[in-house]
Amino acid sequence: MLAVPTMSAALEIAEYEFDLDGALLDVNLSREIFYPVAAFLSMRQIPFAFVTGYDEMSRPPFYRNAKVFTKPTDWAAAARHVTGRVPVAAAAYGT
């Protein structure tokens, strides 16, 4: 698992990282809306899910069928859902 604090960093990873198994996107992180990152992931057919405290109607219609984990959430369980395996960082902590 890798925490990415800004949309520009997430966009760069979504566009250029070739070993990406999946992504968990906090919809609103540091007042940046991460839907452009979801678009890149969709184009590259990389699985992702949103993590948010917002309701379904706050998401654009295109993303209303995407998997959503409601905050607070178990990030390791969410990552398992997206990638189908236990994330390395989570495995190290026994979650």
Low-confidence runs = 89-95
What class would the helix/strand composition place it in? alpha/beta
Number of DSSP-assigned strands: 5
CATH class: Alpha Beta
Structure notes:
The longest helix has 10 residues, at 7-16. This protein has helices at 7-16, 35-43, 75-83, 88-92; strands at residues 23-26, 28-29, 32-33, 48-52, 68-70. The chain has one domain (7-92): Rossmann fold (3-Layer(aba) Sandwich), CATH 3.40.50.2300. Residues 89-95 have low confidence and may be disordered. The chain has a 3-stranded parallel sheet. A two-stranded antiparallel sheet has the order 2-3. Helix content is 35%, strand content 17%. With 95 residues, the protein is of the alpha/beta class. A hairpin with a 2-residue loop joins β2 and β3. α1 packs parallel to α2 (35-43). It is built from 4 helices and 5 strands; from the N terminus they run αβββαββαα.
SSE map:
Blueprint: H1 7-16, E1 23-26, E2 28-29, E3 32-33, H2 35-43, E4 48-52, E5 68-70, H3 75-83, H4 88-92
Parallel strand pairs: 1-4, 4-5
Antiparallel strand pairs: 2-3
Helix pairs in contact: 1-2
Which terms summarize this structure?
35% helix, 4 helices, two-stranded antiparallel sheet, disordered C terminus, three-stranded parallel sheet, 95 residues, alpha/beta, Rossmann fold, 5 strands, single chain
